[in-house]
Amino acid sequence: MSNVSRLALGLALAALCHLMPAILPAAIAAPASEAASATEAQQPPALTHAEASAELKRLQTEQDRIKQQASDPDGTTKLDELDHELHKLDADVDKLSAALTPQRAQLQAQLDVLGPPPSDGITKEAPAVVRQRAELNARRLQLDAQLKQAAESKENIANLSGQIARLQRSQMKDQLALRSDSILNPQFWKPMVSPAAEDRARMAAFLDQVVPMVQLAWQPSQRAATIALLLLALGVWLLGKRLAERALAWFCLNKLPPTRLRRSALALATTIATVATTGLAVQIVYNAFTRNYELPPDLMTLYGGLVKLTLTSALIAGLGRALLCTRHPSWRLPALADPVARAMKPFPAVLAGLLLLAGTLEQLNRIADTSVQVTLLGRGLVSLVVVLTIGAALLRANRVRNELAAAGEQPEARATLAGMIHAGVTLIVIVSMVALLAGYISFARFLTYELVWFDIVLCSLYLLTQVTRDLFESLFSTQHASGQVIKQLFGVDDARLEQAATILSGIGASLLLLLAVVALLTGGFGTTPADLVNSLVTVLGGEKLRSLNIMPERILNALVALGVGIWLLRTVRRWLDGELLPKLCMEPGLRASLITLFSNVGYVLLVLLTLSLLGVRWDNLAWIVSALSVGIGFGLQEIVKNFVSGLILLTERPVKVGDMVSIAGVEGDIRRINVRATEIQLGDRSTVIVPNSQLISQNLRNVTMSNSTQGVASLQLTFPLNTDPEQLRDLLLDVYRENESILDVPAPSVMFSQLAPNGITLSVTGYVGSPRIAANTRSDLLFEILKRLRAAGISLSVPQSLRLENMPPFGPEPERALAAG
User: Fold this and answer.
1) Which among 83, 295, 298, 596 is most buried, taking Cβ atoms within 10 Å?
2) Which residue, 707, 573, 599, 712, is CA-closest to 653?
3) Which residues form the Mechanosensitive ion channel MscS domain (predicted)?
């Protein structure tokens, strides 16, 4: 290269360097301007401060209008339209926020270019820069306030949308509680044939969550493992159940003592095996589809509901197989005739399967949030399945019983409680069917679900109660090793072991009964009684009732508690009277007193519990206490006095049932001590009612209070002075000794009690086995003494006296007869 060329190249490079500051910003600005133009084309147009304020004011006005319409007391507002308007307002708020946010960012960028004001106090800025920074800060504060107001509006819209959703659910509950189409109406079945577009869309959205899970589990790489897990679940459910039942049956027959415990334990083992294998199979199916997939919240909720429904259905089938026990009739726990048990065999499994299918449909409706018509269809199917299955089982069982009666065979004996339960179930089935035909679908669904839940709880209570009683009887039986070990370890006799078995079995049965009551009141399949009653009362004007503190759910709970409490008190009273107290070797009088005291205290506590469930507050009962005080001062004084006296009689026990008493000329045996009065049975089998206060305040003669089984008869006879006293003594002793009622120990005795001018008086004493036979014994002695005195030629002096210990005198007739003799 020549020098000239080098010189030209250097000049060109120098010129390019000088021109670079001007060319480079233009080259960069052109693409940047193009990108900014594209960005501005995508962003919403900028809004002025006045436009943004006007839009915010409009949004607030629309919110107030929707809120006012939603709180319309007439209830004529269409909540769906308000919800749609809220969604539009929410979209408008988003547009406003999207328009204001870039302006806020642009202002912040301009402020960042200007930078903060100088802080040294020396550097001076141009007035234009200071003015521009102040304007930018003021505009930024306005935009911040508008963005904050937009965020508050969005939050208020979300809260208002939630309130409208709750109102929609409340209206839906009210609609479900009211009358709808009957199951005989084709409109009721229309959603099954041609569902609405809204329901199809919701079910499609739900299926969009299910299809990816199934597709992932059915991929070629996962298909073999999925099929293997499904086959494993089927094998566990079918084959595993049989193997588990056989293993548990072998354990019950070979390891348990040969008592009734084998039967009850075998029934419990059958139920546990059915439920456990079904639950394991469901878990395996769940793992087959979700081992590589995380379920969304809706599917997790559906899975939880299906697991509960499946285990409940398995429990129904297991209880049916365990209690009917058609393969081994001798192992059957309930007293069912074998033909009746065979006739009812298929119904528990059929009910469990149909309930599982219908309940799954209802769960899908709940998760997909379908319309009211589809929800009613699902509830109607569930109710119809339960009604038809249980009704067919009742009809078939009754037909078999009638056939047995016509053939001359005796059907199974049925207790009163079992008959009442059978009648109640039949009545509920009939009422549910009538409700389905009349269009009260939710009411029928409530009745049928509660009927199934009641049957489950009742059968479980019966099975567990039998297992508990048989377990304690076998555990404390001296015929088995466990009872012998307990006897040697604690040094107790056979009677104490029997008492311990009775007490523990009673406590176990009481706890199980308490759990059953809690399960009935708090558990169940679907709508609780309180929910259904609240829905109906809300439609009928429940707010007025609530203003008067009248809560339907409290009344229902109080009535249930009162009925169950009365039945429980009577059951425990029969158990105490028939099982526990006789085994404690208590006398009849003490047993009667304890049972009466238990009943009185139990009924008082039951009344207090019922008032508490009704919501009665004791600090608001001052007027009742005042009224009672006035009433006690006037008309209720005697009643309260007799009541308190009755409690004293039951606690101090100066008299008890079975005692022989004499009060105010009334003599007889105490048969019952009630709260107000005591019943005394006389010798002629008549009954005298004596107020309890008289037994406390008056003089009372209790012949048998000392618990002595002996009575004392003492006769005083007066003879002439010329009579040989030794001859009289021998004669009287011979008469007493020869009488069969007079005891040898203590021996009868004769005492010379008086020497008077009119003759000598001898007292003869003898003991009998009971005070109640003393009168008859005295009569026999008098006949024999008069006979022998006449034979010996000995006369009696006048007057004569006769005294019988532990018995009141019978009047002057015997003395006149003796004097006449």
Assistant:
1) 596
2) 707
3) 639-704
